[in-house]
Specification:
Blueprint (H helix, E strand, L loop, with lengths): L5 E11 L7 E6 L21 E4 H10 L6 E5 L7 H14 L3 E6 L3 H6 L3 H7 L2 E4 L7 E4 L2 E3 L3 E4 L6 H5 L5 E4 L5 E4 L20
Helix pairs in contact: 1-2, 2-4
């Protein structure tokens, strides 16, 4: 019997406007060994953290909200360090919906193509934001965290103007009170838990 693919995730947000064009579900995967200095999401690095979720369950959730969103964005952590499970998720989303797929990776395009299942992931994505974060070259606009990163339009679904319209940051309050500060320009406030002191972070 073939084992079902499992993806280790840090968080899923059902509706974001700061992680790609339109309203998007966002999946932050857990685990990254690239350790870019100044990374906005260091809590996503530990591969032993996060929650292991069967791809079938995650796909069912995303497909279930597909009428309310334009697409899905996958970030991290480093998504391509779970390339096989990621490819399984994106393949199911492609099969069942018309959602667009935007992917952030610290790897370059060439590095992704050399990874097992890397090319499979690329065939399923519409846009790839590639390259390690370099805080000395920080720009934080147009979905680029630093100027060395590259944008690859893998289909004709989007172009540069679509990415230019994405807001740099947003604050989301989830139903359990968790505050999620996300977007390309949140260097020190990403993925927060609610403060004990209600005056904090005001």
């Amino acid at each position: 019997m073939t084992a079902q693919p499992v993806l280790t995730i840090h968080r899923v947000v059902d509706a974001s406007r700061a992680n790609g064009p339109g309203v998007r579900a966002v999946v932050w995967v857990q685990g990254c060994t690239l350790n870019c200095p100044g990374c906005a999401n260091p809590e996503t690095h530990d591969p032993a953290g996060g929650t292991r979720v069967p791809v079938s369950i995650l796909a069912e959730h995303i497909c279930g909200i597909s009428s309310k969103i334009e697409g899905i964005t996958v970030s991290g952590g480093e998504p391509l360090q779970q390339a096989s499970a990621l490819a399984a998720l994106l393949k199911e989303i492609r099969r069942r919906t018309r959602l667009s797929i935007l992917l952030f990776s610290g790897y370059t395009m060439q590095e992704i193509e050399a990874l097992k299942a890397g090319k499979a992931v690329l065939r399923l994505a519409d846009v790839l934001i590639a390259g390690r974060y370099d805080r000395a070259r920080r720009v934080a606009r147009g979905l680029l965290a630093s100027s060395n990163q590259t944008i690859h339009f893998l289909t004709d679904r989007y172009g540069p103007a679509d990415l230019a319209e994405v807001p740099e940051a947003e604050v989301l309050i989830e139903s359990d009170g968790t505050v999620v500060v996300t977007g390309i320009d949140t260097p020190s406030l990403s993925l927060l838990s609610p403060p004990e002191d209600p005056e904090q972070n005001r």
